[in-house]
Design brief:
Helix content is 28%, strand content 12%. By secondary structure, it is α/β, with parallel strands linked by helices. It has a five-stranded parallel β-sheet with strand order 2-1-4-3-5. The longest helix is centred in the last third of the chain and has 16 residues, at 185-200. The protein is globular and about 45 Å long. The chain starts with 34 loop residues before the first strand and ends with a helix.
Length: 204
């Protein structure tokens, strides 16, 4: 049987989506100092509901890598940045052989320009597997979020109201690290527009 012909629908070269569902109108450039590295699971690349691409396009100091296992050389920063993993504490991962994350030294948080935030973009199950498969990620101190408002990510199923999209979690993390020096509200407002656009494509 012949393989199906590739789609000929025109795509946006910037957001990589079909032109009819282009999300570039929601890109809201954010003036931030903390660098952001997004590690995206391959299954999220073609997911129209995913927020990582919009996040990457809105963050001038960001990089997006796609994969499940990464070479350590691709993850390490060549400069003097201090890398933090945006991930909750997971003591239960000890049964998987994942060591406890090192303690976060408050002193490294004094200069946001010397920080790099590493974000895993995937479902909880996939992100846990990526953490397990990449020992270098296990060596990073973690930044955990708490007391966050309910997510506006109503187009994807969540088990708890405080389970955030990649974009929302990263915005709140940047606000936590940079304080009043960064205004994440315009990007969060743009995210609401993105969510509404995606919801409009779904049947009632």
């Amino acid at each position: 049987m012949d393989s199906p012909a590739p789609s000929k629908r025109p795509h946006c070269e910037r957001c990589l989506r079909p032109l009819r569902s282009c999300i570039c109108r929601w890109v809201a450039p954010l003036a931030h100092r903390v660098e952001v590295l997004v590690l995206q699971h391959p299954l999220e690349v073609a997911n129209a509901k995913g927020s990582a691409r919009l996040l990457h396009l809105s963050l001038p100091h960001s990089q997006l890598l796609v994969g499940e296992v990464f070479a350590e050389a691709d993850l390490r920063d060549a400069g003097v940045k201090h890398s933090l993993l945006l991930y909750p504490d997971t003591p239960q991962h000890a049964v998987l052989g994942v060591p406890p994350a090192p303690k976060l030294d408050p002193a490294v948080l004094q200069d946001p320009a010397q920080l790099r935030l590493v974000v895993i973009d995937g479902t909880w199950r996939k992100s846990r597997k990526m953490l397990y498969l990449n020992p270098w990620l296990q060596q990073l101190p973690r930044l955990a979020l708490s007391g966050m408002p309910a997510s506006h990510y109503r187009i994807r199923k969540a088990h708890r109201p405080d389970q955030l999209s990649t974009l929302e979690a990263t915005c709140y993390a940047l606000a936590q690290l940079e304080g009043e020096a960064v205004n994440v509200r315009p990007l969060l407002d743009a995210f609401d527009g993105f969510v509404a656009q995606q919801a409009a494509y779904r049947p009632d």
